[in-house]
Amino acid sequence: MFDFARFHILGRVGKIKAFEKNIRVSIAANASYKKDGQWVDETDWNEIVIFDKNTRQYVTENVESGDYVRVQGRLRQNSFKRDGETVYVVELICDEFSRAPKKKAAESAAA
Fold first, then answer.
1. Label partner for 64 (CA 20 to 30 A): which of 19, 41, 70, 103?
2. Beta strands at 38-50 and 85-99: parallel, antiparallel or unpaired
3. pTM assigned to the model
4. Which of 59, 41, 42 is nearest to 50 (CA)?
């Protein structure tokens, strides 16, 4: 038997927040649906957590807001205390991170 809890996100980078032992990256993924016969876009924001040192370095040096990325990883339930109350969260832990190639300035100008 094979058990797993995984995620896969394709989307655009929002904010990158660096901490001592991890980086948190918000990623916008759009979903479309019909409402009253018209297509409507809805943006879902997900924050991933990167612990791997090499991946953190890659993101810090090569990724910026607006970049199109692919992220895969695992889900982890966690809890912490805030003002005496236990807060439960589901973290998206990054195992694989890649950025789509950026268009060169000349290609963008010609388009």
1. 41
2. parallel
3. 0.82
4. 59
> What's the domain range around 24?
6-110
Whether the predicted pLDDT of 106 surpasses 50: no
Sign for the CA dihedral angle at 62, 66, 71, 77 comes to positive
Helical (H) or strand (E) element with 87:
strand 85-99
End-to-end alpha carbon distance in the chain: 50
CATH of the domain at 37: 2.40.50.140
The tally of CA atoms less than 13 A away on the side-chain side of residue 68 is 6
Going by their DSSP bridges, the two strands 68-82 and 6-18 should be labelled as antiparallel
Residue 86 amino acid letter? T
Q: Domain tally for the chain? A: 1
Any idea which residue has 């003002």 for tokens? Answer: 83
The per-residue pLDDT for range 68-91, each reduced to its tens digit, is 999 999 999 999 999 999 999 999
Q: Name the residue type at position 92.
A: L
